[in-house]
Each structure stands twice: as structure tokens, then as C-alpha cells.
Write a structure and sequence with these properties.
Elements lengths: L1 E5 L2 E7 L2 E6 L5 H16 L4 E7 L8 H22 E7 L5 H9 L7 E4 L2 H13 L10
Parallel strand pairs: 3-4, 4-5, 5-6
Antiparallel strand pairs: 1-2, 2-3
Helix pairs in contact: 1-2
């Protein structure tokens, strides 16, 4: 099922257990909240999954400090349930913003495999090899 959350964010779960979020424009608080709602709904399935976040813009977040705090609070609110379901995260971002993305992620309470890539294919391969295969999960097609 392909679903659009907002103009700024697309969600795709057609390749489950790989969930994909694409940010085509800088995300504001509403977009971030929508993305977190979607991730929480995926987590509530109580099925393990990996997340591919494609940041197709620079900057990814508007008001970075405020939004980072919002994300951190939401992650903490779902706690261990999210850590059990979300096996790992790969982020695809333009080279120009890789370091900013890395710094933003460092402020988040994530205890799972997480990597940043410049291209989608290596990101998906890494998720398959690092988190999905060890959990006995595969992606049928991509």
C-alpha cells in the first residue's frame, strides 16, 4: 500500500518489512509529527521492520533543535516497544548535509543499527544484510 502523508513526506510500506519514508522538502513540525505517527503505527503491528529514510532536500528539518527535541520525546514515549519492532534505520541524504544529519541523529535516543548513505541501493543492501537477514526477514521485491 502506498500512501501520502503530506506533500512533504511520502510513506511506502509495499516492501514490508522494509518501510520507506521520503522527505521531498524540508520537514516542519506537522510533517515530523506525521512521520512519527506513521512509524508508531508500523510499530503497533508488532512485526519487526527496517526503516529507509530518504532525505531528498537540504535542510531536512526546519528548526532543527526544536524538531530534534520533538523526535526525541516521541521516541522516548514509545520506548522499548519501538526498539523491539524497529530493527534498524538507513538514511539516504545528499553529501552536502550528511554531517548535519549525523549531528541531529546523535541527539536522539536510538539504540539500534543506524547508518547514513548517499545512495538508496547501498542503504537497502545494508539494511537487508545487517538487520533484516539476521532477524530471518527478507524483502520480496524492490
Amino acid at each position: 500500500m502506498r500512501m501520502t502523508v503530506s506533500i512533504k513526506l511520502e510513506c511506502d510500506e509495499t516492501h514490508w518489512p522494509l518501510a520507506i519514508l521520503v522527505a521531498e522538502a524540508p520537514m516542519d513540525a506537522a510533517s515530523v509529527s506525521s512521520a512519527l505517527d506513521r512509524i508508531q503505527r508500523w510499530q503497533e503491528r508488532q512485526q519487526p521492520f527496517a526503516l529507509l529514510l530518504i532525505a531528498a532536500c537540504d535542510p531536512v528539518l526546519r528548526g532543527d533543535a526544536m524538531l530534534s527535541q520533538l523526535v526525541a520525546q516521541r521516541i522516548e514515549s514509545v520506548g522499548d516497544a519501538l526498539q523491539r519492532s524497529l530493527l534498524g534505520v538507513a538514511i539516504v541524504a545528499p553529501t552536502a548535509i550528511t554531517e548535519a544529519v549525523r549531528q541531529s541523529l546523535a541527539r536522539l535516543p536510538l539504540d539500534m543499527p543506524l547508518e547514513i548513505f548517499e545512495k538508496s541501493l547501498p542503504a537497502v543492501e545494508w539494511l537487508c544484510r545487517t538487520v533484516l537477514a539476521p532477524a530471518g526477514l527478507t524483502i520480496e521485491s524492490l
